[in-house]
């Protein structure tokens, strides 16, 4: 089997570290791993396949020996470095928001639209975490019934905001236990014991940037004719995003058929036995690769309506795993 030189940009970050673990866990055909990061992290060490590797600086020249680069270093770094990597002969799979809505860049979920990879010009974008898990669950249903409208409310873990947010939630728990004043810096309000309907910045239309990502990315990946109405909420959970998803379809829905199709869908696990208190929960999804779906029931207020509850590990399928899966699919399709 052919092996590839793989660069990971943002190797010291939370998602970058997950990418490295996933490459090892999934036995990705790595010839040489090239960990890259900002200058202050140069010479720090990471472990991969039993070998200790030193981090190098992500800059021009760093990609000359790489076949593929997995980026998770933020939009600014991606805008600067991804074109450089491509010019040095490297394919880029980018986890930031930098390239997602660029008409020349495929936005890909391997279970949903792998054929879009054939149109790549060197850069492939990884969608937003909330979009990924929703569309993995909805693609089989869109194929069956043709979705006309989606109303989605998200319940997003603090890890989506990075390590500082994780530490803030931990610290607030300690402050509460000690009876101390609860302090906050990452979010505009206390997150402990709270739900904040504010993920990313607010835009002029009253929606947040995160909400508009779900609309625009659904249109690009699945179907531009689908109407999407999102509300994104941050909750006091460390890891794992949850979504309440309501769809309206053109064709009549059969609940038994929905469950049968989802139980066989690639990347989906059906957990739907509420009589036994079995339904997807973030606490059970941590460290799992799949998207979990449950609470499937008819929406009696519209002719062809369906409700479901969708949960996934936002650092895995929502970020690092989907990035690696894109690279795997490109190898399978002989695009690297």
What do you see in this structure?
Strands 10-11-9-12-15-14-13 form a 7-stranded mixed β-sheet. A 6-stranded parallel β-sheet has the order 5-2-1-6-7-8, sandwiched between helices. Strands 3-4 form a two-stranded antiparallel sheet. By secondary structure, it is of the alpha/beta class. The protein has helices at 14-25, 75-87, 129-145, 163-177, 209-221, 255-264, 282-285, 316-332, and strands spanning 4-9, 30-37, 45-48, 51-54, 56-57, 68-71, 91-94, 123-125, 147-156, 195-196, 227-235, 241-249, 268-270, 291-299, 305-312. The protein folds into 2 domains: 4-127 and 319-332, NAD(P)-binding Rossmann-like Domain (Rossmann fold, 3-Layer(aba) Sandwich), CATH 3.40.50; 131-314, Dihydrodipicolinate Reductase, domain 2. It is 30% helix and 25% strand. The radius of gyration is 20 Å and the shape is globular.
| CATH-derived architecture of the largest domain | 2-Layer Sandwich
Distance between the termini: 13 Å
* Helix proportion: 25-40%
Quick one: CATH class of the largest domain? Answer: Alpha Beta
β-sheet strand percentage: 25-35%
| CA gyration radius, whole angstroms | 20 Å
Task: Please outline the major beta sheet.
Answer: 7 strands, mixed
Structural class: alpha/beta
Tell me the number of helical segments per DSSP (H or I, 4 or more residues long): 8
Mean pLDDT comes to: 97
Name the poorly predicted regions.
none
Tally of discrete structural domains: 2
* Total beta-strand segments: 15
Strand arrangement, largest sheet?
10-11-9-12-15-14-13
CATH topology of the largest domain: Dihydrodipicolinate Reductase, domain 2
């Amino acid at each position: 089997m052919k092996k590839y030189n793989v660069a990971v940009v943002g190797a010291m970050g939370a998602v970058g570290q997950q990418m490295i673990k996933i490459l090892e866990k999934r036995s990705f055909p790595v010839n040489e791993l090239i960990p890259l990061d900002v200058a202050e992290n140069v010479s720090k060490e990471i472990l991969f396949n039993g070998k200790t590797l030193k981090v190098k600086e992500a800059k021009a020249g760093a990609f000359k020996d790489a076949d593929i680069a997995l980026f998770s270093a933020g939009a600014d770094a991606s805008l600067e470095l991804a074109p450089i990597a491509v010019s040095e002969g490297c394919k880029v799979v980018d986890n930031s928001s930098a390239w997602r809505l660029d008409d020349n860049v495929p936005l890909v979920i391997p279970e949903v639209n792998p054929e879009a990879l054939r149109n790549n010009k060197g850069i492939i974008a990884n969608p937003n975490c909330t979009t990924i898990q929703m569309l993995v669950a909805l693609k089989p249903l869109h194929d069956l019934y043709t979705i006309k409208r989606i109303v989605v409310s998200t319940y997003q873990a603090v890890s989506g905001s990075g390590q500082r947010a994780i530490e803030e939630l931990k610290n607030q728990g300690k402050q509460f236990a000690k009876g101390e004043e609860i302090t906050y810096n990452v979010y505009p309000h206390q997150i402990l014991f709270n739900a904040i309907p504010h993920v990313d910045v607010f835009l002029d239309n009253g929606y947040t940037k995160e909400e508009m990502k779900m609309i625009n990315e659904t249109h690009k990946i699945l179907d531009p004719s689908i109407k999407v109405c999102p509300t994104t909420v941050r909750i006091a959970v460390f890891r794992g995003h949850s979504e309440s998803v309501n769809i309206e379809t053109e064709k009549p829905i059969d609940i038994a058929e929905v469950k049968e199709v989802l139980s066989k869908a690639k990347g989906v696990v059906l957990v739907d036995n509420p009589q036994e208190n079995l339904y997807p929960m973030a606490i059970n999804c941590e460290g799992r690769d799949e998207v979990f779906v449950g609470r499937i029931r008819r929406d009696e207020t519209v002719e062809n309506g369906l409700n479901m509850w969708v949960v996934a590990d936002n650092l895995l399928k929502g970020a690092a795993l989907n990035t690696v899966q894109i690279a795997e699919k490109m190898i399978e399709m002989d695009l690297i």
